[in-house]
Design goal:
Helices cover about 30% and strands about 20% of the residues. It is α/β, with parallel strands linked by helices. Helix 3 runs antiparallel to helix 4 (about 135-145), helix 3 packs across helix 8 (about 250-260) and helix 5 runs parallel beside helix 6. The radius of gyration is 25 Å and the shape is elongated. InterPro entries: C-type_lectin-like, C-type_lectin-like/link_sf, CTDL_fold, VWF_A, vWFA_dom_sf.
Length: about 425
């Protein structure tokens, strides 16, 4: 049996952290918490909703009080974790969610966040299921109460903690009225077994990610090595590994949690920094290529029936992203052709917007095909049309030219709650 070698690998001498180091940790967490409190007042005290007239594409919402997620914290409490570090983990965990307006379930407001807590060492313990904390006071007392002592076990099997998180989400989130809520697992690890055995955490983490769960990892040691950070990166979703002792990482975790709350309903493609990398920085807008041929005007009405609008192309980046999106969508064939939101009103080119909002005048960027736009009182709609290797704008009659079209809508995020059908 490999238990003896595993024990040897994870045995941590009781004097591995000196009294000086313990004092440094305590000072660090106190100082970090104070800085975070000041930063949060500055950042979240001046929220502004998206203004399309800025001629920028919408960013993901950053209204932390209206966060709506199901979150499971998985915390190492083996002897690899010092008591001061464990207290620091509790402080960081509470700080991440201290501005959320609704902890638990609020029947009058679906924008709420549930938080479960699991600790692990040799075994995993469910300290709080997703319905245990129904207020910030519950969260504060529950987290600090559960993370008040280090286990006597020197073994650290993260795989057990991740499996317990999977079962919790399966029983209390998936297949429930909160099935459409994004699910996040945050791992706080000081050490864990790694290797090819039943305790290898990578398969357990991959199972969560395959189910659509976002996995974040936080190195919870004083001086995390590059090797340990790389190990945690193999468990986390891309780019979501943090170091609890690094400056501003608590704020970065908070930003990552809000980003996890930014997503698009099924059939929509989230606009992001890199089309080929789904983990690249997302924008707060969603694109829906429609392979049904219809006129520009009918396309606009169809988008509005979905509480959307014909897509904007404020930049070359957005134009190129849409080209890549339709190229990979069934029903779009070369030469590509599809309606976008540019149209002419009273002699001015403007971009379609959600119903009730003013359309946005065309500004500096343009991508007209050669010889376009054609001056005509009837050619007031615009399609993207592929000409050789290039795809650009051509103005067309809004009622007579039928082709595919691209709808755009705001993402589901802290500014916009979406129901189970993806409706804002």
């Amino acid at each position: 049996m490999v238990v003896s070698s595993i024990k040897k690998h994870f045995e941590v001498p009781l004097n591995s952290y000196s009294a000086k180091k313990e004092k440094e940790e305590t000072h660090f967490f106190f100082e970090s918490t104070m800085k975070l409190a000041i930063l949060l007042i500055g950042v979240y005290g001046c929220l502004a909703l998206y203004d399309p007239s800025s001629y920028t594409d919408r960013q993901c919402g950053s209204d932390m009080p209206n966060l709506w997620l199901d979150v499971v914290a998985v915390v190492d409490n083996s002897k690899g974790m010092t008591l001061n570090m464990l207290t620091g983990v509790a402080t960081v965990l509470v700080s991440i969610f201290n501005l959320v307006a609704n902890i638990g379930i609020n029947p009058n407001n679906p924008r709420s966040t549930r938080i479960g807590l699991i600790t692990y060492n040799e075994n995993a313990t469910l300290n709080a299921d997703l319905n245990a904390y129904q207020s910030m006071d519950d969260l504060f007392s529950g987290v600090f109460g559960s993370l008040s002592a280090v286990s006597s076990s020197r073994l650290s099997y993260l795989s057990n903690g991740l499996e317990t998180a999977r079962v919790l989400l399966k029983n209390q989130s998936f297949g429930t009225p909160r099935d459409h809520y994004r699910k996040v697992v945050i791992v706080f690890a000081a050490s864990y077994y790694k290797g090819s055995s039943e305790w290898d955490p990578i398969p357990a983490a991959q199972s969560l990610k395959d189910d659509g769960v976002i996995v974040m990892t936080v190195a919870s040691v004083w001086d995390a090595t590059t090797e340990f950070m790389n190990d945690l990166a193999s468990i986390s979703s891309p780019g979501l590994v943090f170091d609890i002792s690094a400056q501003n990482d608590t704020e970065m975790i908070k930003s990552a949690v809000m980003m996890a709350n930014c997503y698009c309903p099924n059939a929509y493609i989230q606009y992001r920094e890199l089309f080929e990398d789904k983990s690249s920085t997302p924008y707060g807008s969603c694109l829906h290529p429609n392979n049904v041929s219809t006129s520009w005007k009918a396309s606009q009405l169809n988008c509005r029936n979905r509480k959307a609008y014909l897509a904007t192309e404020f930049t070359q980046h957005k134009h190129d992203f849409i080209v890549e999106s339709v190229t990979s969508t069934t029903g779009f064939h070369p030469p590509l052709s599809y309606h976008i939101g540019l149209n002419q009103v009273l002699g001015k080119w403007v971009w379609d917007q959600p119903q009730g909002l003013p359309q946005i005048p065309l500004q500096s960027y343009s991508d007209w095909n050669p010889m376009y736009p054609i001056q005509s009182s009837s050619m007031n709609g615009v399609e993207n049309f592929q000409n050789g290797q290039m795809t650009g704008w051509q103005n067309i009659d809004q009622l007579k030219v039928s082709t595919n079209y691209i709808c755009e809508s705001y993402a589901c995020d802290t500014d916009n709650y979406c129901d189970a059908n993806g409706n804002i």
